[in-house]
Amino acid sequence: MSVQTITRAGATSADAIRTLFSTAMSEMYRTEVPAYQTLVELVEEVNAAVLAADPVERHRLEAAGGLARITEERHGAIRLGTANELSTMRRLFAVMGMYPVGYYDLSEAGVPVHSTAFRPVDGEALSRNPFRVFTSLLRLDLIADADLRREAEQVLAGRNIFTPGCLALIEKAETEGGLDEEDADRFVAEALETFRWHSRANVPLDLYNRLHDAHRLIADVVSFKGPHINHLTPRTLDIDAVQRMMPEKGIAPKAVVEGPPTRRCPILLRQTSFKALSEPVDFRDGDGGGWRSGVHTARFGEIEQRGIALTPKGRALYDTLLQDSRRLVAPAADGSNAGQYMAALREVFAPFPDSWDEIRRDGLGYFTYSLTEAGRSNPPAPGTDLETSIGRGLVRFDPVVYEDFLPVSAAGIFQSNLGDDAQQDFTASPNQQRFEADLGAPVLNPFDLYAEIERTSIAACVAAK
Ligand code: OOG
Ligand code: NI
């Protein structure tokens, strides 16, 4: 395996380790969940067709350094059981240049977890490989049954989801400021073990059933030796086409695409998924040391289309319009009113500007700015106003890709029957403090990161000679 290394004391760059890891994860998931392989092929097919039909988009992606990213892109998701698991996971991801961004409180949508997304944060790292992992922590405090809570806590306290080799290499990376090539390869192999599927449960069937009755997710987190990756999501350039074509490939998608409607200029994130598989699992057979067969449903497939990152103003508009459309037509869990919902969504979102220039002028989205060819041969004089340079064709602007998640969409993926009054509280709630204490660090604010990427690009334009 060859990695791109940087010269500093022979250390492998965090970006290179992340790429090794996301590639290994993708390979593992392809063999574990064959439908994922089918989905990846479908997405590649659709992306190639979109780029062939749209040379302008192709050129724009190329110019923004984004073309190579598209087929590489993945996100995954895991669910953890304890504070200790979460803080160690933070240290594990840091070795790959991934940091906790954002806080998502899913309890408001009836899912007993709160979450963050580990991802690269600066523009350069993102353009190399934006691999991200949506990471949830189970909230046992939301289990009403005190006895069941104690049992679950006991099971979780007795497991160790990281291999000793993985823990040793995390420490080595922390003390030595990185890993050499050989250690990087070992680290990836050891870390991968944590994300692997275990067909043998960690609990007897009876306890599994009681956990499952409390909430399906509680059973998923507590019953296994580790936090198996539950989906891996490729990025498509046309989610409507993928949604349409999934049945042709023998995959049944959920009824509605989550997030904003189809638009010329995509905003934020649109997602669809196929239902979790029912998989055979062996459960411990009481004290006898034997095994009993059963099933568990956890792992599924998901596809997403990413659009521009919105400013707080753009996000507020998005949240209002989404709420309005859900008030008009609440998507039914069985998909019976999917057409109606999508129509309402399109109609309600009509006031959201649908050209990059309008989105930019209205301060709704983040952009990167760069010199055009004309701008490079004839740089704007120092102090020239950015708008003037754009007007003269010396500077161009490109949308910054949204790298995060949407709580309503995530909840819709977790369970597709949100009530009318389900809230989308994206800001701090009292639980964020608890989450950060368990994480052992504050989560980063996504808006700050996008603003920084925009600022850096403007500074580079102004400084160019
Ligand atoms: C995470 C669901 C959230 C997304 O893309 O919004 C998510 C989970 O099911 O563990 O991955
Ligand atoms: Ni996902």
From TrEMBL:
Species annotation: Azospirillum oryzae
Keyword Oxidoreductase (UniProt): yes
Keywords (A to Z) from UniProt: Dioxygenase, Iron, Oxidoreductase, Plasmid
Family: Belongs to the 2-oxoadipate dioxygenase/decarboxylase family.
Cofactor: Fe(2+)
Lineage: Bacteria, Pseudomonadati, Pseudomonadota, Alphaproteobacteria, Rhodospirillales
Family matches, as Pfam families: HGLS
Entry-linked PANTHER family: 2-OXOADIPATE DIOXYGENASE_DECARBOXYLASE (PTHR39479:SF2), PTHR39479
InterPro entries: HGLS (IPR009770), YdcJ_bac-like (IPR047869)
EC number: 1.13.11.93
Gene3D superfamilies: Uncharacterised protein PF07063, DUF1338 (3.10.180.80)
A GO MF label: dioxygenase activity
Signal peptide: none
Name listed for the protein in its UniProt record: 2-oxoadipate dioxygenase/decarboxylase
